[in-house]
């Protein structure tokens, strides 16, 4: 590839001079793809397309580990907070959504996401604003458990009348928690 004079035979067999490149994880697979972070050779099965280009699984995992900076106890702390706040929200929802008839559904439409936002903020504050893997799932399960347990235990059969708007409330609340605590 220098500036020296080349012969015709070099052009006839250009590929022989280029070494074959193989995936670091699959020695049998030829590839030209490299992780754009650590420069490791990767095949299409090993590559993950990220917003900044192809990366190997190890680099993507390393970045996720850095993104999730919370401790192992954080999902449990979040679950406890979620259960308590969920119980309060549940009693309020069961008590009030039923008495407004059809308007209970409209109120639930706005009150659910609002309650979810408050609970998500409460959890974020209680875990020191750290991000933990599956934190949102733990909080949603605990919040719904607190909500329905408190409703059924405190109000008993009276909960039946407000069950549908409360379900709507619960869906809005859960999806907001899911999005806010990712
Ligand atoms: Zn890499
Ligand atoms: Zn591979």
Could you walk me through the main structural features you see in this protein, from its secondary elements to its overall organization?
With 182 residues, the protein is mainly alpha-helical. It has 2 domains: 60 residues, no CATH class; 107 residues, no CATH class. Helices cover 56% and strands 4% of the residues. The chain is built from 6 helices and 2 strands; from the N terminus they run αββααααα. It has a two-stranded antiparallel sheet. Strand 1 and strand 2 form a beta hairpin. Helix 3 runs antiparallel to helix 4 and helix 3 runs parallel beside helix 5. The longest helix has 24 residues. It starts with 7 loop residues before the first helix and ends with a helix. The N terminus is likely disordered. Bound molecules: zinc ion (ZN) (2 copies). The site of one zinc ion has 8 residues, from strand 2 and helix 2.
How would the blueprint of this fold be written?
Blueprint: H1 8-12, E1 47-50, E2 53-56, H2 57-67, H3 74-96, H4 103-126, H5 135-155, H6 163-180
Antiparallel strand pairs: 1-2
The structure holds zinc ion (ZN) (2 copies).
Write out key terms for the chains shown.
two-stranded antiparallel ribbon; 6 helices; 2 strands; elongated; binds zinc ion
**Helical fraction:** 55-70%
Rounded to the nearest angstrom, the radius of gyration is 28 Å
Give the biggest beta sheet. Answer: 2 strands, antiparallel
**Backbone shape:** elongated
Instruction: List the helices and strands in order.
Output: HEEHHHHH
Number of domain modules: 2
Instruction: Please give the alpha-carbon distance between the first and last residues.
Output: 51 Å
Task: Catalogue the ligands.
Answer: zinc ion
Low-pLDDT residue spans: 1-12
Structural class: mainly alpha
Sheet with the most strands: spatial strand order = 1-2
The residue-averaged pLDDT reads 88
SS summary, helix count: 6
- The tally of beta strands, per DSSP, is 2
Strand content: under 5%
